[in-house]
Amino acid sequence: MIGTMQRWEMDGIGRDKLVLRSVPIPDPGHGEVLVKVAAVSLNYRDKLMIDSGMGLPLAFPFTPGSDLSGVVQAVGDGVTRFAAGDRVISVFAPEWLDGPPRGNGRFPPYQTLGGHYPGVLADYVAFPADWFVRAPASLDDSEASTLPCAGVTAWFALVEKGHIRAGESVLIEGTGGVALFGLQIAKARGANVIVVSGSAEKLARAKTLGADEGIDRSKEDWVEAVYRLTADRGADHILELVGGPHLAKAVRAAAINGRIYQIGVLEGFEIASPAGPLMLKNVTVQGIGVGHRRALEDLVAEVDRAGLKPVIDKRYPLADLPAALDHLDRGPFGKIVVEMA
């Protein structure tokens, strides 16, 4: 395809290294599809990649971003999975199709878009066809772009690993992208949802999305509040989105045989918990990085079936990526999305 496009690139680590450049539109090679990007949703992980590189051996110039929605413009030789005109979304860990992730005990897998592989903050991308799934028919492009990481992470925790059932209790920490997906997925499955936040305004908004209870952590001990709201039972499922020493609070708030899904690292990658309640309550701590392609396809089907609607705090044009990252720093309610022209 002849012509040029806009793409964010970095020649080094740090936001001051971000440059919006005009580059040639790529041609799809064998087994690849050329996708015209419509929208890219941002994750906290994108901020970490830009600010620190997360210790990965990045190839410069590096393009950040992992979660896109768009339309297939052309297909390379041998592609049968998609045709021109198909609406698609990206797969965050593109080589993880199903089953256990690749890797081993010494080298855990982290082959993702916008990290090990090139990112998607561009007008067009040319990637292998296997790196995409069909977008949900019920969502617009910006909404669909929020599924590949935040959406499938919540789904993988609660449904794929947790097998959540009606009547169980789910504790959700915060009101970011994964949190609000977890809220909606849990409610669609008939669970009772408790949301913890330091903002009364955000708690009120969470209740409009179906949260049964809200705890303002700035006004009370939220673990004690969980005991009060569950008659001392504790929470059956906890989306642990903070990390660091915060895991200890999640363990205290968990029910007997409760499940904690360790997802967030806002307070650090080194997590800590007292051993006593962890052992005596038979708590399971499940690490969740993201989910595989099959889980994303399952989530797409659930979105169309149950009418799940991702929450977007604000949409920014491609040229305003720095402002979008600043908004991400402030803590959005839901997702931040960058839209292409």
What is the CA-CA span between the terminal residues?
Answer: 18 Å
CATH architecture of the largest domain: Alpha-Beta Complex
Our count of domains comes out at: 2
Number of strand segments: 15
The CATH top-level class label of the largest domain: Alpha Beta
Q: Can you write the helix and strand succession as a string? A: EEEHEEEEHHEHEHEHEHEHEHEHE
Count, helices: 10
The helix/strand class is alpha/beta
- Mean pLDDT reading: 96
Question: Uncertain spans, ≥5 residues at pLDDT below 50?
Answer: none
Radius of gyration: 20 Å
Q: For the report, how would you describe the main beta sheet?
A: 7 strands, mixed
CATH superfamily of the largest domain: Medium-chain alcohol dehydrogenases, catalytic domain
Shape: globular
Q: Helix amount, in percent?
A: 25-40%
Briefly note the CATH topology name of the largest domain: Quinone Oxidoreductase, Chain A, domain 1
Proportion of beta-strand residues: 25-35%
Can you describe this structure?
The chain is of the alpha/beta class and 341 residues long. The chain has 2 domains: 4-146 and 310-339, Quinone Oxidoreductase, Chain A, domain 1 (Alpha-Beta Complex); 151-287, Rossmann fold. Helices cover 28% and strands 27% of the residues. It has helices spanning 44-52, 141-144, 147-161, 177-188, 200-208, 222-229, 247-253, 275-280, 293-306, 321-330, and strands spanning 4-10, 18-24, 32-42, 67-75, 87-90, 124-128, 132-134, 169-173, 192-197, 213-216, 235-240, 254-262, 284-287, 312-317, 335-339. Strands 3, 4, 5, 6, 7, 14 and 15 form a 7-stranded mixed sheet that branches. The protein has a 6-stranded parallel sheet with strand order 10-9-8-11-12-13, with helices on both faces. Strand 8 (169-173), helix 4 and strand 9 (192-197) form a beta-alpha-beta unit. Helix 3 (147-161) crosses helix 4 (177-188), helix 3 packs across helix 9 and helix 6 runs parallel beside helix 7.
